[in-house]
Amino acid sequence: MTAARALAALAVTATSAAILMTPAAAQAATAQPATAAAQSAPITWGPYYAPGKAAKAAGKLTATGEDHADLPTAAVVTISGTVQDSTKSASCGWAVFRVTYRSGSNLPSRNHWVRDCSYRTPKHFSVKHHDVYQVELKVCSEAKAAKPSLNCLYAGTWKTLYLSK
User: Fold this and answer.
1) Local structure of 90: helix, strand or coil
2) Is residue 28 classed as helix, strand or coil in its secondary structure?
3) How many Å apart are CA 119 and CA 143, to the nearest integer?
4) What gap in Å lies between CA 116 and CA 135, rounded to an integer?
5) Which of 30, 31, 47, 83 could form a disulfide with 95 if both were Cys (CB 3.0 to 4.6 A apart)?
6) Which residues partner with 116 through β-bridges?
């Protein structure tokens, strides 16, 4: 019986301490700093190469405002870096990003690409996307065109640069 009374007294003491705790002290005891949740450290990616090292891409990715409530996404993802053509022929280097984002409760994706057709002169880029779940990359080398070919988009494998957890 004394053990039960001691446990009851301990429970009352803990409850009283929690009630007397000021809101600021309660928040400091339970909350993480806002900056830790708001922005992750930049992720360095690459270099990744097209087959035969005909093109390469490298850079960094920063995710801010990760939300894990319903569908885990980052509020904003910034992708920056360079893409470079490594051939003397008429081909271009392509960095193709497949960005999967939240739209309601769905996760559709869209492609964003950067093209460089100047031999060994890297092209710098920086793009932002919102409500991002995943970012993947594929590097291709092919003829100059308005958009990457179906072969570039669908052959080979994508490299995952970011996946919200």
Assistant:
1) coil
2) helix
3) 13
4) 20
5) 83
6) 93
Distance of CA 147 to the CA centre of its chain: 24
User: Do you know the residue count of the chain?
Assistant: 165
Q: How far apart are CA 165 and CA 161, in angstroms?
A: 13
Beta strands in the chain (DSSP E): 43-49, 55-67, 73-85, 91-101, 109-116, 123-143, 159-163
Predicted pLDDT of residue 66: 87
Contact predicate 118/124, CB 8 Å: no
Distance, in Å, from the CA atom of 129 to the CA atom of 2, rounded to the nearest integer, reads 62
Q: Which amino acid, one-letter code, is at 19? A: I
Give me the pLDDT at residue 39, please: 61
